[in-house]
Amino acid sequence: MPVLPAVLLGRAVRLAARVRGGGASAMPGYLALRVEPRFLEKTISRIPLGVVAVSGSNGKSTTTNMLTAIFREHGLKVFTNPSGANLPQGIASAVLSEVSLNGALDADIAILEIDEAYGVKLSGLLKPRTVLLLNIQIDQLNRFYEPDRVAGMLHTIASSASEAVVLNRDDDYLAALGRELYGGTDASISWFGARPELIAAAPHGIASATRFSAGERSAPPEASVTVTALDGPRADLAIGDDTASVTLPSRGLHYAIDAAAAAETARVVLGDRFRPELVTRALASMKTVYGRGELLKTGDGDDVEIIMMKNPASMQMNLDSLEETPEQVFLAIDEGTPDPSWIYDTDFSVLDHADVVSGSKGWQLAVRLGYSDIPVGTVEPDLRKAVQRFLALPRTKSGRKTMIVNYEQMMLIRRLLGYSDLEGRDGE
Fold first, then answer.
1. Is 428 a domain residue?
2. The domain boundary residue, chosen from 259, 284, 309
3. Counting beta carbons within 10 angstroms of the beta carbon of residue 271, is it exposed (0 to 12), middle (13 to 18) or buried (19 or more)?
4. The CATH number of the domain where 405 resides is what?
5. What's the pLDDT band for 428 if we cut at 50, 70, 90?
6. pLDDT per residue over 230-277, tens digit each?
7. Order of strands across the sheet with 400-405?
8. Torsions phi, psi of 21, nearest 5?
9. Measured between alpha carbons, how far is 219 from 165 in angstroms, rounded to an integer?
């Protein structure tokens, strides 16, 4: 079937949602796929340089954003699924925003973030030339149960790559996956990572899941791109004989490792066209992916830093990246986190108080903080009231207020603050 009916229906739904003032939605993509189940294959597969698939437990959106910026700085036209719309309907919605009526996308290459579970099917449909895998960490227990299950998913995704697989050499699961792939794939295998001293200096390392069946760990593979220095939101990357000093979207070793992953993937794909200095230029001008240390302005001119906690690893790494105790703290968690018991494994010691705690599971979070003797000012389950109360607090000396929230609460808070610029979202 031609893609025209799917494109027309999807665009009509997008337009109707905008006219009604609706927020982000993956419904246009969902309906396009119902009309033409091969919609993604028939559109994305026509892109000349093919697909780079980005997956892993954490860092997918940021790394996809970085990689897109690097390719664009090298002069390529890139199609991507912005803001982490990483399920089939979200990717289809992203296609609808750019595809022509005959199904053509004006792009040289596609950089696609894909969900670990849905990536098993998507990688078979989209047949990526390159697969980048970031990490395997303790993730959404209600979906993935245990890291071994995720490792199997990512193995399938990696096996679909026709030209290259790029892996994190400091992740035991991915190091093992790389050894398993050697000799079993025609794709090249390369690595990125960080200096051991930087990982050791992080309070909780890089939060990779423990691979209990690994036995004694083998020597890590040699990385082609390595994080060699980190100073707040700046990092140095050793890229072969060159060094690229880069600006990160926010503080934290995890962001520096994402940058190394993006640089190595670009190096592999571009070959002789790759220029390390363009990595520096690309990341310097890149916008922060929403909710990942994003700074938003309030009506009173305050900066609100939004830090998203998606799972135990992302929560811990973001807390570890705080350079000092925040002056004002807002915490929120709701039903988007079905089982919040993992907060009892989280080290909250960087916080000395919480001004406002919110969300339908806010009381559970407040109890957890109580066990660590961290005082809580107010528990207000109603998010709108809680945000109003938090913003009404006196201005901080630094002019910055800190909000640490789960994904669903982050989306609502952005809208409450007047930022309704997201489309095609369907979760991670």
1. no
2. 284
3. exposed
4. 3.90.190.20
5. very low
6. 998 999 999 999 999 999 988 899 999 999 999 999 999 999 999 999
7. 292-297, 303-308, 400-405, 329-332, 354-358, 376-380
8. 80, 20
9. 19
Integer Rg of the chain from CA: 21
DSSP 343-354: GGGS--TT-S-E
What tens digit of pLDDT does each residue of 19-66 get?
665 555 678 888 888 888 888 888 998 899 999 999 999 999 999 999
The structural domain count of the chain equals 2
Q: Phi/psi at 241 (nearest 5 deg)? A: -90, 0
> Residues 233, 296: one domain?
no
Q: pTM for the full model?
A: 0.89
Do 42 and 96 fall into the same domain?
A: yes
Give CA 130 to chain center in angstroms.
18
Q: Where are the alpha helices (DSSP H) in 97-140?
A: 116-126
Domain span at 236: 4-284
Q: Is the pLDDT of residue 98 over 90?
A: no
Residue 67, pLDDT above cutoff 60 = yes
CA distances from 329 to 131, 230, 350 (A): 38, 25, 11
Local structure of 406: helix, strand or coil? coil
Mean pLDDT to the nearest integer, 132-159: 84
Mean pLDDT across the chain: 87
Question: Is residue 327 within 8 Å of residue 302, measured between CB atoms?
Answer: no
Strands laid side by side in the 242-247 sheet: 78-80, 109-113, 51-55, 130-133, 164-168, 188-194, 225-231, 234-239, 242-247
Helix (H) / strand (E) containing 180: helix 172-181
262 φψ region: left (φ > 0), alpha (ψ -120 to 50), beta (else): alpha
